[in-house]
Each structure stands twice: as structure tokens, then as C-alpha cells.
Amino acid sequence: MFDLTNARILLTGAHGFLGGYVYQQLLAQGAKKSYIRTPAIEEVDLRTTENCIKSVRDIDLVIHLAANVGGIGYNSAYPGDLFYDNARMGIELIEQSRLSGVRKFVQVGTVCAYPRTPPHIPFREDDLWEGYPEGSSAPYGIAKKMLMVQLQAYRAQYGFNGIYLLPTNLYGPRDNFDPASSHVVPALVRRFIDATRQQLPEVAVWGTGSASREFIFADDAARGIVLAAMRYDKPEPVNLGSSFEIDIRQLVEIIARKTGFTGTITWDSTKPDGQPRRKLDVSRAEREFGFRSEVNFEDGLSRTIEWYSKHGRPSRSASILAGVQLEEYVA
After folding, report:
1. pLDDT digits (tens, 9 = 90+) for 111-122
2. How confident is the model over 253-295, as pLDDT tens digits?
3. Is the entire prediction scored with pTM above 0.85?
């Protein structure tokens, strides 16, 4: 058991969507607010060696969430940035953590690391190397998967305690609702709420609606990350999911109903569906550190819609090159 009570913690990406929830979970598990270092990107660009050295100085635990990340359109537009930024940040931060004597490193990876068509559904952690990731998200997924290999190699050679987690698609209040970079749930929530308010007769949706996804509420995922930080110390990667799967057509229908949209929904089949199916085998997480998701999908979706309805604005960006005040996320 890793005791958080007096641990000096570096939480990268603390000013982002998931980071705010992880910050709250750390406090709930006994971490001291004054011991949690939460640098904003304006203060520390983790793509440089010097800033990584500075960030991990006198740190016991690193939880690395910072990432350049977005949805299908963003992935297609910026594959080079996604690969370089995410690989460079993670590789350098892990190396400097090792050199600095960090006791534990938690790397949050991505479901995009899985092959486009893995041999098993739900996806098992052992399937990670059974094929190439889905095309639009492959540079991001491979960059993140490289960090798992680095942590396993460092454990074997140096005894460095690094763990690797694979959360499925996240959603929840305070998500990134910017249409240029958002993922499927916030993108659809914004589109249907805006269409309802503007009394638009039609909403066009990307793809055919046949792809399916597993979604996990962000606070659930954050709880899983903190439980793993406290209780898990093995080299094998671990999935974090909800065991709930829904196809995009059903998702669209639910969001339309919950937002009061009564117009026509059209499907633009010239746009990509992305990976055909995503559903994770979550048995390892429950077995190894007792994690199970708790938030029902429709309840979580209602909370997400309610939040956007009240705030009605996108986050500034999902990019590592922007941040927001942490107080917005932990109030």
C-alpha cells in the first residue's frame, strides 16, 4: 500500500478534464493539498528535459496525465504533434523520475493503444500487441504505448516502480466541449443542446452510427487511477472501464431525447466511424486493486448535459499548450 498521507505528489495535467477529478480523489484518500504539485503548462512545458528535472525534484509519486489529445478530427489533423508531444513528454518525465529517485510512477495510457481489431472482445490487456491501432488514433496510441514499454524496461533494469493504466473513453461535467478537438460525448452534447436552443430542424452526425464504445465517468476513472497508485505495483498494464457498451446510433438517440431535440438526425457516411468496437475486460482492475465503476451511464450523461446547459462554453483547449485555473475543477 502506497501511503498518500505524507507523499509529495506531482500531478501532471491537473488543470485538464481528468486531472481535476484525480486531484479531488487524491485529497479524498488523504493526500495533503500542500504536498500536491500541479504545474500548469504556462509554468512548465514537459517536452523539455530541464522542466522535467525541475518538476520531479523531491517528488515521491508521479501521476502523469498531461497529454495532447482530441477526437477523430483532431487526430486526423495533427498526427505528428500527437506523436511527438506525447512521446517526448512521457519518455523524458519517466527518465528524470528514475534519476531523481521517484518512488512510484503512474502512467495513464489510452484505449487507442489497442489494435483496430483485437482477437478478443472485451479487449484483454494481453491483446495490446496483436495488431496495429485504428488509423486516425494510431500515432497517439503508439506514443502512449511506448511509455508502457519504457516503464517495463526500467522496472527490469533499474527496479523502477512504474505502472500503466488503460482507461476507456471518458465523459462527464467539465469535459472539453470545443468542437475542434472534443471526443464523441461532449461533441454530441454540445451539438444537440445548441441545435435545440437555436430550434434547428436537423443535426448531422459523423459516420454511420454502427461503431460502439465503452464509456466511463471521469470521476470513476479518477478513483481507479488513485486506487492503482495506492495498491498496484506490477508491470502488467491494467484496463479501467465500466463494462457498459453502446453503439453511436443509440448514443445519439439518447442524447437527442435528453436534450429535447425533436428534429431530423442525418448521418454523414463520408466521415470516419473510427475503431469499429471498444469494450474492455476490466477483471484485472477488480482483482488487483478492487476497482469497479459506480456511475450509471445515463445518470452520468444527464449530469454532463446539465453541466453544459448551465455553463454553455467549451473548455479552452484539450491541448497541452493551454490550461485553466485548477480552482475551476476542484471547487
Report:
1. 999 999 999 999
2. 999 999 999 999 999 999 888 888 889 999 999 999 999 999 9
3. yes
Q: How far apart are CA 187 and CA 237, in angstroms?
A: 29
β-sheet with 238-240: strand ranges across: 36-37, 9-12, 61-64, 104-108, 162-167, 238-240
| Residue linked to cell 505528489 | 9
Half-sphere exposure of 111 (CA within 13 A, CB side): 27
Which helix H or strand E contains 163, and what residues bound it?
Answer: strand 162-167
What does residue 178 show for φ and ψ, rounded to 5 degrees?
-70, 120
- Give the type of residue at 81: D
Of 190, 185, 191, 188, nearest to 215 (Cα)? 185
Long-range Cβ contact pairs of 147-155 (< 8 A, separation 24 or more): 147/87, 147/90, 147/91, 147/94, 147/107, 147/109, 148/107, 148/109, 148/113, 148/237, 150/90, 150/91, 150/94, 151/94, 151/105, 151/107, 151/235, 152/235, 154/94, 154/98, 155/235
Active-site residue list? 140
| Domain locations along the chain | 9-174+214-245+277-294+320-330
CATH code for the domain defined by 9-174+214-245+277-294+320-330: 3.40.50.720
